[in-house]
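REQUEST ID: PR-0412
SUBMITTED BY: lab tech R.K.
PRIORITY: routine
TASK: structure prediction, single protein chain
INPUT:
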Amino acid sequence: MSLLPFKKKQADVEVTLNPEMEAFLKDYSIEVMPRTAEKVEDFTSLLPAGTRVYIAHIEGTPIEDMVATAKRLSADGYNVMPHFPARIIKDEATLADWIARYQGEAGVEQALLLAGGVAEPHGDFHSSMQLLETGLFGKAGFKHLHVAGHPEGNKDIDPDGSDKNVMDALLWKQKFNETSDAQMALATQFAFEAGPIIEWADAIKAAGVDIPIHIGIAGPAKLQTLIKFAIACGVGPSLKVLQKRAMDVTKLLLPYEPTEVLTELAAHKAANPDFNITNVHFFPLGGIKTNANWAIAHGGASTAPANPTKEAV
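STATUS: complete
OUTPUT:
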């Protein structure tokens, strides 16, 4: 079978497809916030029906705004996955209230559980594991529970630069996954270099963590914007990819696109079908429309199933 790219026209975007990339982008997800979603007049012209859309819950965002965004996206036919940042949730009663609101008003049955970006907890919780231990998501019948992954480590969790605490947490989540009825996945921080991502994915699998990985990828954006976000989010060694690009005057003013890193990952997946990265998760740092159009142009326009199978999580 030929792997030469071919072209087709979709949504007024010229599409040049590489079959490996198209397969790798199938059922990709994307992240929005209430304020960025407000700027999108019509999601259905940008995202395939059934796309999983994460809603980031930033400190200070009212739960009413989060639920309203979830309700809108759900009505448009998307699988909505709101963030539950442990450190901004006051107590178990608040957590139960949020779950009930999302379910009752927007039909949500998926959640991304993470510690959150604030330094000091607002209440009883400081980790995603504590949220899982409440059992509230299971009682509510949530079908998909995603947790965070860190391909380049996390210095907030492991200040010494090791990965000991991160690995201990992953092994705990692996055990939880083995006893949970929910389908779990690791949604990761974004990185810019394929080699270290592959090494990390292989390493956690060798350590006994076989939870599917949804790899975080920064969407097209101005280079300066990406560097700012990468530093703020604690992106590790792969930041040098952007810094090297910034030193090239011929590329400095050109927008960054994730073509290179995704092409390498897609080729590796095609050569290694059992590779544990199963999906791509986009952080649309240069805008939702820009990211969605880039995805369309590279084959990410396949319709995702309304109820993904275990293999598709």
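NOTES: Confidence is low (pLDDT under 50) at residues 1-11, 302-313.
REVIEWED BY: pending
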